[in-house]
Task: inverse folding
């Protein structure tokens, strides 16, 4: 009776394919999880900054309503018929717009300061 | 000769399987670390949501008593008093799905203390803890309550 010879080549290839597939999946898993965590940390930090700014804004409002001269201390400027104050924290700005007479809030906006990255390396300046 | 070939065959199989098991073990560890990172991200996101919800309720309330009533949903909150600085802590418990529940998965502490700067101003720190009691997230804010009720 002739026995077919046992060869390890196909088995080795199969195990290699399985290993490569598992390695790719594991790298994808870790990369995705890290990205998730980084995003969650960024979100958490943004919420902290937002509440810090809102607290500062609340304090500004109550102080200004008690004593109108505090507007100057907070650097309020008259823009489009409103007193506008800007509070900054960690790259975020809270813009508060108040009616000059009643000091009612008309604008309450938080936005991230953004500057275009226009620096390009190795570009001839033309001089 | 046949015996030698047989031995080599077994040796090769052994090495191949050993390498495969080793690689599988390493990859399992990588999968587990990915799972842990993902779990951490999930817990942080949940904690931020719970802290934000609590902070909004703090801002919506007018006094400490009002806050304790607002925060208590189905008996998941208890008020802890008696600290030396006169601060009040409301402790709430939530389950894994962030629903109010007496059995805590997440514990949220809202500590309300007096701000040193103004009489009507209160510093509030909302802290979220995981099931092991480790702090996941802290959110600090200041609220102004015109009418202050002290215990």
Result:
């Amino acid at each position: 009776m002739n026995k077919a010879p046992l060869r390890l080549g196909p088995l080795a290839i199969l195990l290699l394919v399985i290993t490569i597939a598992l390695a790719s999946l594991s790298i994808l898993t870790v990369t995705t999880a890290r990205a998730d965590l980084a995003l969650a940390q960024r979100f958490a930090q943004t919420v902290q900054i937002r509440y810090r700014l809102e607290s500062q804004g609340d304090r500004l409002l109550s102080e200004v309503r008690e004593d109108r001269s505090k507007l100057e201390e907070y650097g309020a400027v008259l823009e489009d018929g409103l007193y506008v104050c800007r509070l900054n924290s960690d790259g975020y700005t809270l813009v508060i717009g108040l009616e000059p007479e009643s000091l009612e809030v008309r604008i309450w906006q938080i936005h991230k300061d953004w500057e275009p990255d226009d620096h390009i390396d190795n570009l001839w300046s033309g001089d | 000769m046949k015996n030698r070939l047989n031995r080599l065959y077994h040796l090769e199989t052994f090495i191949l399987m050993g390498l495969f098991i080793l690689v599988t073990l390493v990859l399992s560890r990588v999968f587990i670390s990915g799972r842990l990172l993902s779990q951490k991200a999930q817990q942080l996101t949940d904690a931020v949501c719970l802290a934000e919800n609590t902070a909004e309720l703090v801002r919506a309330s007018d006094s400490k008593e009002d806050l304790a009533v607002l925060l208590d949903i189905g008996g998941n909150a208890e008020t802890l008093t008696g600290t030396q600085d006169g601060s009040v802590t409301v402790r709430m418990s939530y389950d894994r799905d962030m629903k109010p529940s007496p059995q805590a998965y997440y514990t949220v502490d809202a500590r309300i203390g007096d701000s040193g700067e103004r009489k009507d101003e209160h510093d509030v720190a909302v802290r979220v803890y995981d099931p092991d009691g480790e702090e996941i997230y802290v959110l600090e804010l200041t609220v102004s309550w015109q009418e202050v009720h002290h215990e």
Summary: The radius of gyration of chain A is 30 Å.
